[in-house]
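Section handout 9: paired folding examples.
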Amino acid sequence: MQLIKRSIQESIEQKLFKGKIIIIYGSRRVGKTTLAKQIQEKYPDTSIYLNCDEPDIRNAFTNVTSTEVKNFIGDKKLVFLDEAQRIENIGLSLKIAVDSFPDIQIVATGSSSFELSDKINEPLTGRKYEFHLYPFSIDELQQIYSWPETLRVLEARILFGMYPEIIQASRDEVKALLRSIAGSYLYKDVLQYQNIKNHDILERLLQALALQIGNEVSYNELAATLGINKKTVANYIQILEKAFVIFRLGPFSRNLRKELTKLRKIYFYDTGIRNALINNFNNFNLRQDVGALWENFIISERIKFNGNSSKDVNSYFWRTHKQEEIDYIEEAGGISGFEFKWKKGTFKFPGTFIKAYPDAKIRVVTKENFRDFLT
């Protein structure tokens, strides 16, 4: 299969050798190592790639002096630290490196933002550029698919997701691969963080969230269902967010009393992972959740598009206590409202919203017209 160039690669390369550390976040198996090595290929003689899952690499960068850092990397000018969260006190080591050797560029990747960001935020204040690598986007797939081909594989991409391995796998392999990603690899960072040991509760929580995509999520109801307290639910959800498994949308409100202000919606970055968690890979004609799946997929793709394009956007949903709703709201200078429908049909945007936000742009996005929404 043709190698797909990631959308953020050019932006990363533009930040090289600017006197700051570059941090690339992303879940395991999302392609961080491949991206790092693609960049490294342009600097074959002056770069070094270091896998921090290896004990000797971790030891070499743990609690080091500037002299020890320099002795280890030698005359290399571009250093890649893959899975850098594995290094104890990595933030301090990176601070020493960037302060002592501003002509050396370090690129650190991390699959656990709760570990890596916690370790680097204070030491690297003002000393870093941060990027987020997502699973493949529809826009990135245009490198290997024509648009008619994209439409032909759209249902498969919604069912099985956009992880690099999944894109390249045969139909016979894809389910086992997804279960592997959703199981051992997906949980690996989450369960290690704060010594979380209750795999069963975590799995049940993820399954509950997977069954509620498109609906508001109540932490109280989740707590009652799982038999744990609300604080634990909130903590687990925050951890799952920082592991790039899920993301939240809060309610959009400008203090209209009829608008919801407490609940939130939770979506999965990858719908293939979501379907693996509930073990449902049925074709669309056999599913009852097509509308919710499309909503999750298209919002996730929009999040990727905005992130890959470095667009500064606030994202919400909108709903009133009378059940008037709009699936997705973006605020970026102005307000835009989007309703997502798998099949083309009629939809009337709520008069309450139009009256409250008369300058808002509104649009229905379907499988027939979503191209310019994501590319």
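Moving on to protein 2 of 2.
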Amino acid sequence: MASTRNRRRGGGSVDYWPGFVDALSTLLLAIMFLLSVFVLAQFLLSQEISGKDTVLNRLNSQINELTQLLALERSSKQDLEDQIDTLSSSLATSRDERTRLQSLLESGSGAASEAEQRATGLSQTLDEERKVSRRALSQIQLLNQQISALRRQIAALEDALDASEVKDRESTTKIADLGKRLNVALAQRVQELNRYRSDFFGRLREILGNRDDIRVVGDRFVFQSEVLFPSGGANLNPEGLQEMAKLASALVELGEEIPDEIDWVLRVDGHTDNIPLSGGGRYRDNWELSSGRATSVVKYLIEEGVPANRLVAAGFGEFQPLDQEDSQEARNKNRRIELKLTEK
């Protein structure tokens, strides 16, 4: 570390390009993260609101049913009241008729017997109407009790509906607060990892030197395949072993500095040019060749002390070129191994 600091303090121009690239990559990662959290929050909120809407619809349906039942009971009550009014009118008429018959009994003896029979019949009718009237009053009282019970049930449903709406608002607030806290926490972790990535690239540049065949492209450190491998092969050549030993030393040193809560990995990506393999060798196509080269780098880094759970190997064949031109210069540029320090 002391020798590294001395080399940093020594002569040489300062290359600001990695810092600029790190700033751009940090901004891109932050935007992608915010979009992911927004989609997650929208999904959770839609699920919560969907459940609340189902409960609200069920409660509204019950209220509508109870309202219809209450209207029906009120209609029945009105019918009974009309019936009582009719019975009361009949009762008054019967009383008038009885009074008239009694006056006839008093005024004449010839019609006394007939009047007495009619009076007896009217008395029976009057008694029956009184019984009907009492039954109607009893039914009205029962209806009033049922109406009161329905009103209490409607009030309870309205209270439950209000409580559900309050809970819904509280859940929405909690989700929004959780999203903000998650945004802050993850943004801090991304910034911290970017700082270590910048430090790692700076150390690699110091260790490997300024070479045309080893360069930084975006957020990746790029080795041309000819530096590490023979043509068509995936076994590291002597120069490749030397360069990978330097990389492993820097990576082990950096791994001791990165906090345990940052779940980082070094991704090793293999790329080839667009010339198909003959198929007669060890590798049948560029897919296998690119994967084999990435795996060789990973295995050697493990031998040099880099933890296996911090490494990832991937092969892309010829399908992720840096240069789209169909020329020898473009093919030389596209045959490469890329290193990227990222999170799992």
